[in-house]
Protein backbone atom coordinates (compact mmCIF):
# COMPACT_ATOMS: atom_id res chain seq x y z
CA UNK A 1 0.00 0.00 0.00
CA UNK A 2 1.16 3.52 -0.75
CA UNK A 3 2.01 5.66 2.26
CA UNK A 4 -0.65 8.16 3.27
CA UNK A 5 1.70 11.09 2.60
CA UNK A 6 2.44 9.78 -0.91
CA UNK A 7 -1.24 9.55 -1.83
CA UNK A 8 -2.11 12.92 -0.28
CA UNK A 9 0.60 14.57 -2.38
CA UNK A 10 -0.06 12.56 -5.53
CA UNK A 11 -3.79 13.24 -5.58
CA UNK A 12 -3.73 16.66 -3.88
CA UNK A 13 -6.06 15.36 -1.16
CA UNK A 14 -7.88 17.83 1.08
CA UNK A 15 -10.21 16.87 3.95
CA UNK A 16 -12.54 19.56 5.28
CA UNK A 17 -15.69 19.80 7.38
CA UNK A 18 -16.80 17.48 10.13
CA UNK A 19 -19.49 14.95 10.85
CA UNK A 20 -20.00 11.25 11.31
CA UNK A 21 -20.54 10.75 7.57
CA UNK A 22 -17.77 11.05 4.98
CA UNK A 23 -18.41 12.25 1.43
CA UNK A 24 -15.82 11.92 -1.36
CA UNK A 25 -16.23 14.14 -4.44
CA UNK A 26 -14.88 12.77 -7.75
CA UNK A 27 -14.52 15.36 -10.52
CA UNK A 28 -14.99 14.77 -14.24
CA UNK A 29 -12.82 14.94 -17.33
CA UNK A 30 -10.76 18.11 -17.72
CA UNK A 31 -11.82 19.34 -14.28
CA UNK A 32 -10.44 19.37 -10.75
CA UNK A 33 -11.66 19.48 -7.15
CA UNK A 34 -12.26 23.24 -7.33
CA UNK A 35 -15.29 22.59 -9.55
CA UNK A 36 -17.16 21.38 -6.43
CA UNK A 37 -16.84 24.73 -4.65
CA UNK A 38 -20.50 25.68 -5.14
CA UNK A 39 -21.78 22.78 -3.05
CA UNK A 40 -18.87 22.17 -0.66
CA UNK A 41 -19.70 24.98 1.83
CA UNK A 42 -23.14 23.52 2.56
CA UNK A 43 -21.99 19.89 2.49
CA UNK A 44 -19.12 20.61 4.88
CA UNK A 45 -21.61 21.86 7.48
CA UNK A 46 -22.96 18.33 7.72
CA UNK A 47 -20.20 15.95 6.66
CA UNK A 48 -16.49 15.32 6.45
CA UNK A 49 -15.60 16.07 2.81
CA UNK A 50 -12.75 14.48 0.86
CA UNK A 51 -11.57 16.50 -2.14
CA UNK A 52 -8.89 15.25 -4.51
CA UNK A 53 -7.60 15.46 -8.08
CA UNK A 54 -7.21 12.44 -10.31
CA UNK A 55 -3.58 11.94 -11.31
CA UNK A 56 -2.88 14.22 -14.27
CA UNK A 57 -5.63 16.70 -13.31
CA UNK A 58 -5.63 19.88 -11.24
CA UNK A 59 -2.81 20.12 -8.72
CA UNK A 60 -2.05 16.40 -8.65
CA UNK A 61 1.54 15.20 -9.00
CA UNK A 62 1.73 14.76 -12.76
CA UNK A 63 5.10 12.99 -12.38
CA UNK A 64 3.11 10.02 -11.07
CA UNK A 65 1.09 9.81 -14.28
CA UNK A 66 1.28 6.40 -15.97
CA UNK A 67 -0.13 6.50 -19.49
CA UNK A 68 -0.84 2.75 -19.49
CA UNK A 69 -2.56 2.72 -16.10
CA UNK A 70 -4.77 5.65 -17.01
CA UNK A 71 -5.66 4.40 -20.48
CA UNK A 72 -8.81 2.94 -18.89
CA UNK A 73 -11.16 4.22 -16.22
CA UNK A 74 -10.11 1.40 -13.89
CA UNK A 75 -6.84 3.26 -13.35
CA UNK A 76 -8.75 6.29 -12.11
CA UNK A 77 -10.96 4.08 -9.92
CA UNK A 78 -7.77 2.90 -8.23
CA UNK A 79 -7.04 6.55 -7.35
CA UNK A 80 -10.31 6.67 -5.37
CA UNK A 81 -9.51 3.40 -3.60
CA UNK A 82 -5.97 4.58 -2.81
CA UNK A 83 -7.25 7.85 -1.31
CA UNK A 84 -9.74 6.10 0.97
CA UNK A 85 -7.24 3.43 1.99
CA UNK A 86 -4.66 6.10 2.81
CA UNK A 87 -7.16 8.03 4.93
CA UNK A 88 -8.56 4.79 6.41
CA UNK A 89 -12.13 5.92 5.66
CA UNK A 90 -15.01 3.52 5.09
CA UNK A 91 -18.81 3.80 4.76
CA UNK A 92 -18.26 6.70 2.37
CA UNK A 93 -20.76 8.37 0.05
CA UNK A 94 -19.05 8.97 -3.26
CA UNK A 95 -20.37 11.73 -5.50
CA UNK A 96 -19.14 11.70 -9.09
CA UNK A 97 -19.54 14.15 -11.95
CA UNK A 98 -19.87 12.88 -15.51
CA UNK A 99 -17.16 10.26 -16.10
CA UNK A 100 -16.28 10.65 -12.42
CA UNK A 101 -19.61 8.91 -11.77
CA UNK A 102 -18.56 5.86 -13.77
CA UNK A 103 -15.13 5.88 -12.13
CA UNK A 104 -16.93 5.95 -8.77
CA UNK A 105 -19.09 3.03 -9.90
CA UNK A 106 -15.97 1.01 -10.77
CA UNK A 107 -14.40 1.84 -7.40
CA UNK A 108 -17.57 0.66 -5.63
CA UNK A 109 -17.53 -2.62 -7.54
CA UNK A 110 -13.80 -3.09 -6.85
CA UNK A 111 -14.02 -2.37 -3.11
CA UNK A 112 -17.69 -2.32 -2.07
CA UNK A 113 -16.92 -2.26 1.66
CA UNK A 114 -15.48 1.25 1.37
CA UNK A 115 -18.76 2.80 0.26
CA UNK A 116 -22.30 3.24 1.57
CA UNK A 117 -23.98 4.83 -1.47
CA UNK A 118 -23.32 6.69 -4.71
CA UNK A 119 -24.58 9.94 -6.22
CA UNK A 120 -24.00 10.70 -9.89
CA UNK A 121 -24.18 14.13 -11.55
CA UNK A 122 -24.85 13.89 -15.30
CA UNK A 123 -23.41 10.40 -15.76
CA UNK A 124 -23.13 8.35 -18.93
CA UNK A 125 -21.90 4.74 -19.13
CA UNK A 126 -21.19 5.09 -22.86
CA UNK A 127 -21.05 8.20 -25.05
CA UNK A 128 -21.11 6.23 -28.31
CA UNK A 129 -24.09 5.57 -30.55
CA UNK A 130 -24.37 1.79 -30.85
CA UNK A 131 -27.52 1.27 -32.93
CA UNK A 132 -30.06 -0.14 -32.87
CA UNK A 133 -30.10 -0.68 -29.11
CA UNK A 134 -28.25 2.27 -27.60
CA UNK A 135 -27.64 5.90 -28.48
CA UNK A 136 -25.05 7.56 -26.26
CA UNK A 137 -25.13 10.79 -28.25
CA UNK A 138 -22.06 10.64 -30.49
CA UNK A 139 -20.99 8.78 -33.60
CA UNK A 140 -17.54 7.24 -33.26
CA UNK A 141 -16.32 9.25 -36.24
CA UNK A 142 -17.36 12.53 -34.58
CA UNK A 143 -15.47 11.67 -31.40
CA UNK A 144 -12.39 10.70 -33.40
CA UNK A 145 -12.58 14.06 -35.16
CA UNK A 146 -12.81 15.80 -31.78
CA UNK A 147 -9.68 14.00 -30.59
CA UNK A 148 -7.88 14.86 -33.82
CA UNK A 149 -8.69 18.52 -33.14
CA UNK A 150 -6.80 18.17 -29.84
CA UNK A 151 -3.66 17.42 -31.86
CA UNK A 152 -4.18 20.17 -34.43
CA UNK A 153 -5.50 23.01 -32.29
CA UNK A 154 -5.58 22.29 -28.56
CA UNK A 155 -6.86 25.72 -27.54
CA UNK A 156 -9.50 25.60 -30.30
CA UNK A 157 -10.58 22.19 -29.03
CA UNK A 158 -11.00 23.54 -25.50
CA UNK A 159 -12.91 26.60 -26.72
CA UNK A 160 -15.24 24.37 -28.74
CA UNK A 161 -15.89 21.78 -26.03
CA UNK A 162 -16.28 24.05 -22.98
CA UNK A 163 -19.60 25.70 -23.98
CA UNK A 164 -20.91 22.33 -25.14
CA UNK A 165 -20.21 20.88 -21.69
CA UNK A 166 -21.17 23.84 -19.52
CA UNK A 167 -24.18 24.86 -21.62
CA UNK A 168 -23.99 27.80 -24.03
CA UNK A 169 -26.58 29.84 -22.13
CA UNK A 170 -24.93 29.49 -18.74
CA UNK A 171 -22.53 32.05 -17.27
CA UNK A 172 -19.71 32.96 -19.64
CA UNK A 173 -17.33 33.02 -16.66
CA UNK A 174 -18.03 29.34 -15.98
CA UNK A 175 -17.56 28.46 -19.65
CA UNK A 176 -14.26 30.32 -19.63
CA UNK A 177 -13.18 28.61 -16.43
CA UNK A 178 -13.84 25.19 -17.93
CA UNK A 179 -11.98 26.10 -21.13
CA UNK A 180 -9.02 27.28 -19.03
CA UNK A 181 -9.14 24.05 -17.05
CA UNK A 182 -9.01 22.02 -20.26
CA UNK A 183 -6.07 24.10 -21.49
CA UNK A 184 -4.15 23.74 -18.22
CA UNK A 185 -4.16 19.95 -18.53
CA UNK A 186 -1.18 18.39 -20.25
CA UNK A 187 -2.34 17.56 -23.82
CA UNK A 188 -1.04 13.96 -23.64
CA UNK A 189 -2.85 13.41 -20.34
CA UNK A 190 -6.02 15.06 -21.65
CA UNK A 191 -6.11 13.00 -24.84
CA UNK A 192 -5.53 9.74 -22.96
CA UNK A 193 -8.30 10.62 -20.48
CA UNK A 194 -10.58 11.65 -23.36
CA UNK A 195 -10.08 8.28 -25.07
CA UNK A 196 -10.80 6.43 -21.82
CA UNK A 197 -13.90 8.56 -21.30
CA UNK A 198 -15.50 8.80 -24.72
CA UNK A 199 -14.66 5.43 -26.24
CA UNK A 200 -15.45 3.22 -23.25
CA UNK A 201 -18.62 1.21 -22.69
CA UNK A 202 -19.49 0.39 -19.09
CA UNK A 203 -23.15 -0.44 -19.62
CA UNK A 204 -22.40 -4.01 -18.63
CA UNK A 205 -21.06 -2.88 -15.23
CA UNK A 206 -24.23 -1.13 -14.10
CA UNK A 207 -25.99 -4.23 -12.78
CA UNK A 208 -22.93 -5.06 -10.65
CA UNK A 209 -23.36 -1.95 -8.49
CA UNK A 210 -25.11 -3.02 -5.29
CA UNK A 211 -25.12 0.38 -3.55
CA UNK A 212 -28.09 2.75 -3.46
CA UNK A 213 -27.62 5.30 -6.24
CA UNK A 214 -29.02 8.77 -6.91
CA UNK A 215 -28.77 10.04 -10.48
CA UNK A 216 -29.00 13.76 -11.27
CA UNK A 217 -29.69 14.41 -14.93
CA UNK A 218 -29.92 17.74 -16.73
CA UNK A 219 -33.02 18.21 -18.89
CA UNK A 220 -30.95 19.82 -21.68
CA UNK A 221 -27.52 18.22 -21.80
CA UNK A 222 -25.55 18.00 -25.05
CA UNK A 223 -23.38 15.19 -23.66
CA UNK A 224 -25.92 13.03 -21.84
CA UNK A 225 -29.59 13.18 -22.79
CA UNK A 226 -32.30 12.36 -20.26
CA UNK A 227 -32.71 9.00 -22.01
CA UNK A 228 -29.22 8.12 -20.71
CA UNK A 229 -30.33 8.76 -17.15
CA UNK A 230 -33.46 6.71 -17.74
CA UNK A 231 -31.37 3.87 -19.15
CA UNK A 232 -29.04 3.90 -16.14
CA UNK A 233 -31.97 4.05 -13.74
CA UNK A 234 -33.45 0.96 -15.41
CA UNK A 235 -30.16 -0.96 -15.30
CA UNK A 236 -28.90 -0.12 -11.80
CA UNK A 237 -30.28 -2.50 -9.14
CA UNK A 238 -31.12 0.21 -6.59
CA UNK A 239 -31.42 3.71 -8.00
CA UNK A 240 -33.54 6.82 -8.33
CA UNK A 241 -33.45 9.48 -11.04
CA UNK A 242 -33.91 13.20 -10.54
CA UNK A 243 -34.14 15.31 -13.71
CA UNK A 244 -33.29 19.00 -13.18
CA UNK A 245 -34.82 21.61 -15.50
CA UNK A 246 -31.46 22.98 -16.56
CA UNK A 247 -29.03 23.27 -19.45
CA UNK A 248 -25.55 21.79 -19.50
CA UNK A 249 -23.51 18.94 -18.13
CA UNK A 250 -22.28 20.55 -14.87
CA UNK A 251 -25.26 20.85 -12.54
CA UNK A 252 -23.04 21.15 -9.46
CA UNK A 253 -21.69 24.40 -10.92
CA UNK A 254 -24.63 25.90 -12.80
CA UNK A 255 -27.51 24.79 -10.56
CA UNK A 256 -26.03 23.90 -7.15
CA UNK A 257 -29.14 24.94 -5.24
CA UNK A 258 -31.24 22.43 -7.16
CA UNK A 259 -29.08 19.47 -6.22
CA UNK A 260 -27.79 20.27 -2.73
CA UNK A 261 -30.94 19.47 -0.71
CA UNK A 262 -31.81 16.22 -2.52
CA UNK A 263 -28.15 15.23 -2.19
CA UNK A 264 -28.11 15.86 1.56
CA UNK A 265 -31.32 13.86 2.00
CA UNK A 266 -29.80 11.01 0.02
CA UNK A 267 -26.49 11.05 1.93
CA UNK A 268 -28.25 10.97 5.29
CA UNK A 269 -30.70 8.37 3.98
CA UNK A 270 -33.62 10.59 4.94
Could you walk me through the main structural features you see in this protein, from its secondary elements to its overall organization?
- With 270 residues, the protein is an alpha/beta fold.
- The chain is built from eleven helices and nine strands.
- The longest helix is centred in the first third of the chain and has 15 residues, at 73-87.
What is the topological layout?
Layout: H1 4-10, E1 14-17, E2 22-26, H2 40-43, E3 48-51, H3 73-87, E4 92-97, H4 99-110, E5 115-121, E6 129-130, E7 134-135, H5 140-152, H6 154-166, H7 172-184, H8 187-198, E8 212-220, H9 226-235, E9 239-247, H10 251-254, H11 256-267
Parallel strand pairs: 2-3, 2-4, 4-5, 5-8, 8-9
Antiparallel strand pairs: 1-3, 6-7
Helix pairs in contact: 1-3, 3-4, 5-6, 5-8, 6-7
Amino acid sequence: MLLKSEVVKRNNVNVIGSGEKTVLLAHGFGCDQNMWRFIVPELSKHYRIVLFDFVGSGQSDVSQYDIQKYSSLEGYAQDIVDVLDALEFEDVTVVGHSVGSIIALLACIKRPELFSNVAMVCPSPCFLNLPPDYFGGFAKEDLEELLNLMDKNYIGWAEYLAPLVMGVNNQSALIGELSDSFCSTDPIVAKNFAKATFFSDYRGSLKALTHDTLIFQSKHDSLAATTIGEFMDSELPSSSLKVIDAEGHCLHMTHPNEIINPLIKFITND
